[in-house]
Amino acid sequence: MTLWLAGSLAVLALIDSTSFGTLLIPIWLLLGSERPRVGRMLIYLGTVTGFYFALGMIISFGAYAFMDQIQAALATQAASVVQLLLGVGLFLLSFALDPNRRAKRADGEPGKIARWRQRAMGDASGGGSIPALMGLALGAAAIEAASMLPYLGAIGLITTSGLDLAGRGLSIAGYCVIMILPALVFLVLRLVAHRKVEPLLQKINGWLTKNAAGATSWIVAIVGFLIARDALWRLGGIEWVVDQIGRIT
User: Fold this and answer.
1) b/e per residue, 4-36, with b = 16+ CB within 10 A?
2) Which of 154, 165, 170, 229 sits at 20 to 30 Å (Cα–Cα) from 92?
3) Full domain range(s) for residue 102
């Protein structure tokens, strides 16, 4: 593995580490009790890591096995048209991701959410449901799978790097570990200096909760624009669009 590839994967993994499932939910769980339950946190993070690793290996193996066919299919005009429509669709979707609308739906839910956290994590004396905790982890990872753009980019880099199966597996595993490092750091800080670190966790939790939807909207819009622009360039630019409109009319 080259230094450039390793650095690129590390940057993408750190971007992924700030997502809803890898940072916001862990911080939310850490704030649920005076002393966090390390075992439960590790189960949550391990479930998220295992999900992403398995999904990454499946995608990487499939892409590697059918690389020639995929490249040939993507080179067709039909694929470019589908890509253009996908990009436009993502761009339009970004306007539907309204943070204010989500905030209104969330009003009045803190009691229900707190009970959910209690059911998953329990308290210092025990309790809590491991299946509920793993379900929370799998649910968060599955929801984010549809928008895991940095991870898909990383898998693309790994697949086209020429690494063998073992190398691809180690690269994806390393990516997943880096992805949960910030959550692990906060877990350690919460254990050794829980009173001092709680205000910081509260601020991070508040900022992420407030801005997550807006950030997602911008990311989806930018990605949609880039996908559509690339497809339009391969189709022939604006002239192709004008020609298609002329044929319809």
Assistant:
1) ebeeebeebbebbbbbbbbbbbbbbbbebbeeb
2) 154
3) 3-248
